[in-house]
Design brief:
- The two termini are 31 Å apart.
- This protein is 33% helix and 20% strand.
- The chain has a single domain, classed as Sulfate adenylyltransferase, CATH 3.10.400.
- The relative contact order is 0.19.
- It has seven helices and five strands.
- The chain is of the alpha+beta class.
- Strand 3 and strand 4 form a beta hairpin.
- Pfam families: ASCH.
Length: 187
């Protein structure tokens, strides 16, 4: 297993995450979230060796910052992605129980989240509860569909056209460790 975190290249001209900063964040988050409370006694463990993937929400730095703010505020506890894009980028679908590091728009690690549920449904079968849990806009399904249709059309990496029956990965997560920007990395 590689020790470097999986940091996909940014979709635009956003900065690229620094693997050492990701590893440092992981060490702090792991300790504060009590994911490995006795490292001094047991030494390196698989939890220390495998750094979770690091990524940001959205397709721009501004979107990454805005959506991260919703996560840190506890408003956003779900996200959605086009299943076709996961396939095109050869990225495995998220699994319940896995961790991920969320980056801000400047590619700095800011939060550790745990996936709690994953479903794949056609776009036109996304339910109002999921739209609300994404925490964006007015929380309505209508607004969710407008925004995601626009996003999936503009930012597809699969080369496929938007379709109402396209498979969408619905992911729910919980915030495990937030980091206040002012206090990073140890405050």
């Amino acid at each position: 297993m590689p020790s470097d975190p999986a940091v996909p290249p940014p979709a635009d001209d956003r900065p690229v995450a620094d693997p050492e900063e990701i590893r440092t964040f992981w060490a702090v988050a792991r300790s504060r979230a009590r994911l490995n409370p006795l490292p001094a006694y047991f030494g390196p463990t698989p939890l220390e060796a495998v750094v979770p993937p690091a990524w940001s929400f959205g397709a721009t730095s501004d979107q990454a910052d805005a959506l991260l703010a919703l996560v840190l505020a506890g408003t956003k506890t779900a996200t959605a992605g086009a299943a076709w894009d996961y396939e095109a980028e050869d990225v495995p679908l998220p699994l319940a129980g896995t961790l991920a590091i969320v980056l801000d728009g400047a590619a700095h690690p800011r939060a550790l989240v745990e996936t709690t549920d994953v479903r794949v449904v056609p776009f036109d079968q996304v339910d109002p509860e999921h739209a609300l849990l994404e925490g964006e806009g007015d929380g309505s399904l209508e607004r969710w569909r407008e925004e995601h249709r626009r996003f999936f059309t503009a930012h597809s990496t699969s080369g496929r056209q938007f379709a109402l029956d396209m498979p969408v990965v619905l992911e729910r997560f919980r915030l495990v460790h937030p980091v206040r920007r002012k206090a990073w990395p140890f405050g």
